[in-house]
Amino acid sequence: MEKLRDVLCNNAYDYDKRLVKKIQQVRSHEVELVELADFLTGAIGYVHRGLTTSKAKLQLIEKLREKSRYSLTKSTLVKEDKVNIFIWKGRTA
């Protein structure tokens, strides 16, 4: 874990290690915000893989689209206040 902290601090030019004070392993089901992030990442991943086998997941995705007014298939504008979705497309060989 200390190596990860070093890498994160160095990446942020935080050589005094003031920005990243602590890193710890957690079980995602025990930390609500991590669980929510897992849920949203899973929903967006489901959309982008073009899966349609789960009616329940499709209903949740439709509700997310309705409430957020995001397509979930495009990146949001960086200036969004509440949340940003960044769709990454790697280089093809």
State the separation between the terminal residues, measured CA to CA.
34 Å
Work out the helix count. 3
Mean pLDDT: 90
* Beta-strand percent range: under 5%
Count the E strands.
0
Which word captures the global form?
extended
Fraction of helical residues = 40-55%
| Major sheet attributes | none
Radius of gyration: 17 Å
| Poorly predicted runs | none
* H-E string: HHH
User: Structural class from helices and strands?
Assistant: mainly alpha
Task: Give a summary of the structure in a few sentences.
The chain is an all-alpha fold.
Account of the 3D structure:
It is extended, with a radius of gyration of 17 Å. It starts with a helix and ends in a 25-residue tail after the last helix. The chain has helices spanning about 1-10, 30-50, 55-70. It is mainly alpha-helical and about 90 residues long. The model has no long low-confidence stretch (mean pLDDT about 90). The chain is built from 3 helices and no strands.
